[in-house]
């Protein structure tokens, strides 16, 4: 059985194969529980907040959605916001919505239940309007511009 799993992983991804093989060698056959981050996806909506020249912060509802090919036990956290944590036990997908006010990029992470290992992450980016860097068009009455 283990040989079949190793061969299937070897064909799929050499990194997955090496990770599983290392885990088997280090942990032993009975205690090894591997979570491959490539099997878990995390999508943020929206993924960008655009600020105009007058805005100082983003105020927007954020929808986080994760999905896995198998049941997982994990927690969604927001870095620099220890008050926000949502956990699921034995689910293959999950969603979380929150209204956020922020000035800088916000990093969402999916971690194991002990919050020790990061399984995957996604960033909600802040884009500020950069008027000072744009080259203005010349005035229509200027002859040599």
List keywords for this structure.
2 domains; 145 residues; 2 helices; 6 strands; disordered N terminus; Immunoglobulin-like; alpha+beta; single chain; 6-stranded mixed beta sheet
Write structural notes for this entry.
α1 packs antiparallel against α2. A hairpin with a 5-residue loop joins β5 and β6. This protein has 145 residues and is an alpha+beta fold. The protein is 17% helix and 49% strand. It folds into two domains: 34 residues, no CATH class; 94 residues, Immunoglobulin-like, CATH 2.60.40.2550. Strands 1, 2, 3, 4, 5 and 6 form a six-stranded mixed β-sheet that branches. The longest helix has 14 residues. The protein has two helices and six strands.
Please provide a brief summary of the model.
The chain has 145 residues and is of the alpha+beta class. It has helices spanning 2-12, 14-27, and strands spanning 40-45, 48-51, 58-78, 81-102, 106-112, 118-128. The relative contact order is 0.18.
Residues in helices, as a percent range = 10-25%
Low-confidence stretches: 1-17, 19-37
Q: What structural class is derived from the secondary structure elements?
A: alpha+beta
Write the element-wise H/E pattern from the N-terminal end onward: HHEEEEEE
The CATH architecture of the largest domain is: Sandwich
Question: How many structural domains can be distinguished in the coordinates?
Answer: 2
Computed over alpha carbons, the radius of gyration is 22 Å
Q: The CATH topology of the largest domain, please?
A: Immunoglobulin-like
Q: How far apart lie the N and C ends?
A: 75 Å
Q: Quote the beta fraction.
A: over 45%
* The CATH C-level class name of the largest domain: Mainly Beta
Chain oligomer state: single chain
| Structure annotation, total helices | 2
Mean pLDDT value: 77
Q: The biggest beta sheet, please?
A: 6 strands, mixed
What is the approximate shape? elongated
The count of DSSP E runs of length 2 or more, i.e. the number of strands, is 6
């Amino acid at each position: 059985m283990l040989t079949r799993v190793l061969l299937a992983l070897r064909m799929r991804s050499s990194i997955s194969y090496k990770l599983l093989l290392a885990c088997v060698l280090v942990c032993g056959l009975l205690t090894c529980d591997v979570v491959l981050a490539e099997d878990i996806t995390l999508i943020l909506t929206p993924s960008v907040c655009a600020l105009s020249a007058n805005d100082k912060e983003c105020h927007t509802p954020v929808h986080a959605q994760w999905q896995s090919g198998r049941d997982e036990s994990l927690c969604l956290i927001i870095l620099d916001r220890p008050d926000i944590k949502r956990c699921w036990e034995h689910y293959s997908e999950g969603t979380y919505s929150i209204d956020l006010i922020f000035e800088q990029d916000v990093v969402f992470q999916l971690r194991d239940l002990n919050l020790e290992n990061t399984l995957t992450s996604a960033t909600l980016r802040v884009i500020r309007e950069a008027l000072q860097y744009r080259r203005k068009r010349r005035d229509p009455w200027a002859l040599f511009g």
